[in-house]
Amino acid sequence: MLRRWSAAVAAGLLAAVAMTACGGDGGDGAGGGTDDGKITLGFSQVGAESGWRTANTKSIQDSAKQAGIDLKFSDAQQKQENQIKAIRSFIQQKVDIIAFSPVVESGWDTVLKEAKDAGIPVILTDRAVDSTDTTLYKTFIGSDFVEEGKKAGDWLVNQYTTTTDPVNIVELQGTTGSAPANDRKKGFGDVIATDPKFKIIASQTGEFTRAKGKEVMEAFLKANPDIDVLYAHNDDMGLGAIEAIEGAGKKPGTDIKIITVDAVHDGMQALADGKINFIVECSPLLGPQLMDLVQKVHAGETVEPRVITKETTFTQEQAKAVLPERQY
Ligand code: AHR
Known about the structure:
The protein has helices spanning 2-22, 51-67, 80-92, 109-117, 145-159, 179-192, 210-223, 235-247, 265-272, 287-298, 316-322; strands spanning 40-45, 70-75, 97-100, 122-125, 139-142, 167-173, 198-205, 229-232, 257-262, 278-281, 306-308, 313-314. The protein is α/β, with parallel strands linked by helices. Strands 2-1-3-4-5-11 form a six-stranded parallel sheet, sandwiched between helices. Helix 5 packs parallel to helix 6 (179-192), helix 7 (210-223) crosses helix 8 and helix 9 packs across helix 11 (316-322). The structure holds alpha-L-arabinofuranose (AHR). The site of alpha-L-arabinofuranose has 13 residues, from helix 2 and strand 9.
């Protein structure tokens, strides 16, 4: 009798555990993923082009682990077609949530619609898409890149208040068509347009990498003998450009003033060493907030459509002060 009763209780318990394991359709009917009760997150990363990206990947992987989220991570090697393939594969695997950092802004509607039709919620991280249909994703967490460009422009304008001489600027843009390249250019351009003495005499993509930053800066230096300022859309391109400037026998930070964006460790070191003049911070530590959003979306909770990362700026003195505690 006792044995029969125990068997019935055990069977009931097993059924309850099985239901919990299959549950969690994210309020969107997504379901799928693993059957261990964990949320499965498919994440498509841009690549490993910069120090920022490496820190961002680490933040996402560490936070997923800490939150007990089963992370399926895919590196797109800076190619949109790889990201589209990864998203389609996540849909086939029936993950619970898809998150991705879009390499470029355009061309996502079809695959985002496929995810929506499959009932899998999508979260944008770091970079935006230009889809007009905002129901294709649940939320977008990341920086305000236009604001970052404005901060760079404001610093520059303040440095040249006492002169009317022309200020010749060269610009190293990020990946062509990416949100940070488009927006950082716009924010900066809007601010310096208020005074005609600021002239962008050359502007080209350095693809957010150190190698390309160096190569393009070498070409800028050959074609333009009078460069006053370099505005680089990230630290890595700025660091590559520093090598080019030194190679041309000039002193970075003195002969040519340098403004960059990110504030990763190597950039901050160059700022503290006087080779960069000003850095606008762009935080890569998006992991904890992303996992929080993943859990909320999966639970069917309403989330803010836009979550903006808090960021600051650094002068050379400020860099010296914060460098010892810098996490990345
Ligand atoms: O999208 C963020 C940008 O991408 C970072 O500023 C840059 O370093 C990275 O590659």
